[in-house]
Amino acid sequence: xxxxxxxxxxxxxxxGGDLDAFEEFFNTFKRPVYATALAxxxxxxxAEEVLQDCFxxxxxxxxxxDPTRSPLPWLQRVTINLCYSRVxxxxxxxxxxxxxxxxxxxxxxxxxxxxxxxxxxxxxxxRGIDALPPKQQTAVILYYLHGYSLAEAAEVADCNVxxxxxxxxxxxxxxRVRLPVERRIPVRLSVKVVPVRQDx
Amino acid sequence: MSCGRVRRELLDIVRFGELGPSxxxxxxxxxxxxxxxxxxxxxxxxxxxLRRALAARVDxxxxxxxxxxxxxxxxxxxxxxxSVWTWSTTLVARLRTATAxxxxxxALVLALxxxxxxxxxxxxxxPAAESAEEAALLQVPRLPTVRTSLAVLADxxxxxxxxxxxxxxxxxxxxQAGTRLAPRPRVAEASEPGDDSPGPQLRLxxxxxxxxxxxxxxxxxxxxxxxxxxxxxxxxxxxQPS
Lengths: 200, 242
Prior knowledge:
The complex is a heterodimer of chains A (200) and B (242). Chain A is mainly α and 200 residues long. Chain A contains nine helices and no strands. The relative contact order of chain B is 0.09. Chain B has 242 residues and is mainly alpha-helical. Mean pLDDT of chain B is 67; it is low at 185-195 and 225-242. At the A-B interface, helix 2, helix 3, helix 5, helix 6 and helix 7 of A face helix 1, helix 2, helix 3 and helix 4 of B.
């Protein structure tokens, strides 16, 4: 994760009340936290609220943060919890502005029929992601959006690697079922069988 | 190797990149099986579209710069204390839950104590009936609770413990009698198991304790009727000769 690159004394300085350290802390982790919030809520304003609450909480409980470990899994966990507590409160949310913009912007490099098909598939997937149970949605966001390893995603989601794998399997299965057969993505898979090196 | 099993493992390999020495046979199968290739290809395409869909959700990927100032302002503000209102509403909610649970428990204890469910069959020493109504009463299942309550009511009324004239409502009389009760012994004899329908005793009790109008002029008569009805019932009980 990104936090591994950060100086280990950042949290310690923050614990000493250094506001510059807190700003550095915010700038270091704001992107993944905001991305998670936005991916779950699909609402930039709500995501911004979640981001603020998450970092304010981090500052208030800074004494309890472990300086020897990356705070990112904790931040992500808090973000996920804040998101779901807010999303469940406003179930019937309006169409987010970002998705409207996405719908309006057309990639002109593609043929019109391809554009329509691609947009339809994306729409189906967006609805599919929205309909996933929170744990599967979190797994998909952590693994496929953030690119965390299974172990890292499992740490954030507070489960073991096997459970994380299982959640991803079920999420993909649910998404796959949502795609109508005629809209399925054309398969163009060329296989090159390369013998696996066995050093031993 | 069956396609079903290979596909599961192939999907694991493709999704999680877990290539190992045992993967060689799977890849070999993949090169020769068109159906598995399509399956794996579809899965890869699905994941690619999923990544695009997720990336489209995170746009713009950076929070606005105003967010930091709001965080700084909020973080420097003293932590809000729990208000008295919040504390009291929480307390009220907890008390409500506790009351509901206590009420349920009390109802359960009362139901058990009143022996709504008959325990045993009537004892063999049942006295002979003197009239057709009494005979009918003896044939039907007994409700020990009703009998016990009426017995206590009759005892108290007969002993002059309750002024039935100044308290004309027999229901009040029964309640007052209940408050004076010591813990009652459990009544063993009862009707047939499983039969919990209210029998003539209950109907007689209702008739005894409910008069059509609580007219003060008729109060003493009502109380007398109740007492007489109760006494009659007690007299009908097995093992309790009058």
